[in-house]
């Protein structure tokens, strides 16, 4: 396919099982080197929250968690492990919905998602994973490590899978970014007919995270991807820009 | 980039301004032929709602719309064209929120989105565009037309840009599909550690729509894209599968 515009997405494979303390940038850099095509300045490297959290030692052993009365009561009524419920409640700064066995919570970062981002699939037995403490910082650290090792700093996105109201299924979104602007703001630009585009702000980083998921799969061992050719806006952005302020949100 | 898994996304360019009655499949087929790489059976063709609606004659002339009292009152209070508000109300089967100048509505198809999907950017002056009457059917018609002209039937996704609660910016999602399953259901499959994946259903068609948007841009004339290498599940699916049933939705 020779036409422009054109994007390529390659899964980064052959990475070892990630453990706390691992140098994730070094491991991702090695996987990029195995692709054999180096890095280009406008590349985007998408890394899943799961391996970022693992490398940052964000695993919690459930047998060390003492559930509160609320966690015990709600967990037993909904057949969920009360210790897991306790971890979820501790990660939340606000509960948005707690119904039908589901907890939709606002995390300390401000993300609204199921289980306050606590991840209990594909973790070491008896443990769950918390979100990175500061996913933008995680992205910056990986970006700096890639720059040091490969000579080029790509945009870096830390991705996680979130559900959405009204729609079935989960999609990858960006929870941390470095070296790019997560939103592409077209307001004030003109469409081809000459109208000013009034309200068009695309969540490009979320779309790039979703695009990367297409090469990852859930059961495959592809925890990162390289996107080449995507016109994400350069700059010093933060995934916080993707969080709608409470006072502008009709659904908090 | 030589490694697998790998996806390529090419924007389909050089298409004329679409008018009511145009044979969209023929126009898309010609754009694919200009790419020079034919079609492969697992390709996905993503076509924006805007050109589908234009081809299907879904434009409404605002000067032929008589606003109701509600549309006049609400429009004047929020400085929105009462005739546009009237079209939005007619397209809705339920209003989810009507606040701060925004109308979030459930369309007759069941999609929950801003303005009941009524599109007023990049349309002919004095007109707005309604969603296709049956976007799955639109996708099927394009798919059949591509099969007839190019000898291969790709998956076809009709995409639109929707906002999300809690997150800034809009992302492309699938509102019509043909020749694929929009959801990838991993429930019952095992993760690499051997755990059964409990709740993982990925909205692959939405992620593919978002991926395609990365080559489209809002002001560029790229109203369709070809995705090659994406492991979307084959089959006879419907975008209705992407709509969460009201009784399972915590946010209706």
What is the radius of gyration of chain A computed over CA atoms, rounded to a whole number of angstroms?
A: 19 Å
Structural class of chain A: alpha+beta
Using a beta-carbon cutoff below 8 angstroms, give the protein chain pair with the largest interface and the number of residues from each chain. Answer: A-B, 88 and 88 residues
Number of distinct helices of chain A: 6
**How many angstroms separate the termini of chain A?**
44 Å
**Tally of strands of chain A:** 12
Strand order of the largest sheet of chain A: 1-12-2-8-9
- Give a short account of the largest sheet of chain A: 5 strands, mixed
Key terms:
252 residues, alpha+beta, 5-stranded mixed beta sheet, 3-stranded antiparallel beta sheet, 12 strands, 26% strand
Task: Tell me about this structure.
Two copies of one chain form a homodimer. Helices cover 27% and strands 26% of the residues of chain A. The first copy, chain A, contains six helices and twelve strands. Chain A has helices spanning 24-35, 49-55, 69-77, 82-91, 135-150, 204-216, and strands spanning 6-12, 44-48, 59-61, 92-99, 102-107, 112-114, 127-129, 155-164, 167-178, 184-185, 201-202, 224-228. In chain A, the strands form four sheets. The first copy, chain A, has a five-stranded mixed sheet. In chain A, strands 4-5-6 form a three-stranded antiparallel sheet. Chain A is globular and about 55 Å long. In chain A, 50% of the residues are buried. The interface between A and B is large, with 88 and 88 residues. Strand 1 (6-12) of chain A pairs antiparallel with strand 1 of chain B.
């Amino acid at each position: 396919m020779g036409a422009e515009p054109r994007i390529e997405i390659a899964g980064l494979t052959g990475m070892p099982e990630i453990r706390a303390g691992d140098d994730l940038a070094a491991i991702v850099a090695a996987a990029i080197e195995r692709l054999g095509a180096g890095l280009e300045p406008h590349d985007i490297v998408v890394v899943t929250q799961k391996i970022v959290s693992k490398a940052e030692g964000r695993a919690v052993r459930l047998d060390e968690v003492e559930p509160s009365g609320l966690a015990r009561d709600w967990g037993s009524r909904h057949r969920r492990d009360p210790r897991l419920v306790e971890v979820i409640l501790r990660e939340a700064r606000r509960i948005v919905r707690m119904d039908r066995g589901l907890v939709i919570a606002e995390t300390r970062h401000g993300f609204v998602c199921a289980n306050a981002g606590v991840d209990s699939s594909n973790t070491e037995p008896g443990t769950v994973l918390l979100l990175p403490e500061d996913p933008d910082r995680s992205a910056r650290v990986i970006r700096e490590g890639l720059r040091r090792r490969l000579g080029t700093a790509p945009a870096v996105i830390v991705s996680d899978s979130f559900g959405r109201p009204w729609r079935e299924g989960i999609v990858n979104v960006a929870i941390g970014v470095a070296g790019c602007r997560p939103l592409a703001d077209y307001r004030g630009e003109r469409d081809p007919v000459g109208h000013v585009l009034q309200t068009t702000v695309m969540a490009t980083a979320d779309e790039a995270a979703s695009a990367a998921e297409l090469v990852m799969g859930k059961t495959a061992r592809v925890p990162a991807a390289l996107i080449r050719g995507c016109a994400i806006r350069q700059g010093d952005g933060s995934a916080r820009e993707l969080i709608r302020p409470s006072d502008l949100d009709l659904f908090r």
